[in-house]
Amino acid sequence: MTRKAKIRLLRPHALQVEVLQHPARFKVLACGRRFGKTETGKIAAVETAARGGVAWYIARNYGQSVEVWDSFKATLHGIARKKEVDRLLTLPGGGEIRVRSANDPDALRGSGLDLAILDEAAHMPAEVWQAAIRPA
């Protein structure tokens, strides 16, 4: 007997749903602690990858990226193939989620993306957005 694995995301609250469904190309969240910004970003990334897209979750530093990576692995355990060294999860339909850090903006250049989440963007060098992510 085969059991199907399930994606384990938190159920978004009403304001998170509003953000996720808003048609704007660029979204900036200025919310207090405990709003669920990280979880909102995770939901958006999983939805993008589930449709076959490429999503990057960019944390402001390596330590934060490890926490988010561990969370994505738990969420997609048994569903996605993982490449630990690249912090890359590939879903069955070919969509991808990659967790990166903003420590080296040059390392973020060159890829075509369907979604980029910059967590704590105000604490990242401006070139992360301007020179690396925006052109992607």
Would you mind describing this structure in some detail?
The radius of gyration is 15 Å and the shape is globular. Strands 2-3-4-1-5 form a 5-stranded mixed beta sheet, with helices on one face. The chain has helices at residues 14-21, 37-50, 62-75, 126-133; strands spanning 54-59, 81-83, 88-90, 96-101, 115-118. A hairpin with a 4-residue loop joins β2 (81-83) and β3 (88-90). α1 crosses α2. The model has no long low-confidence stretch (mean pLDDT 90). The protein is built from 4 helices and 5 strands; from the N terminus they run ααβαββββα. It is α/β, with parallel strands linked by helices and 136 residues long.
Helix content: 25-40%
Low-confidence stretches: none
Helix-strand sequence: HHEHEEEEH
Measured between the Cα atoms of the first and last residue, the distance is 43 Å
The shape is globular
Instruction: Tally the helices.
Output: 4
- The value of Rg in angstroms is 15 Å
For the largest beta sheet, what order do the strands appear in spatially?
2-3-4-1-5
Care to count the β-strands? Answer: 5
Main beta sheet: 5 strands, mixed
State which percent range the strand residues make up.
Answer: 15-25%
Mean pLDDT: 90
Class from helix and strand fractions: alpha/beta
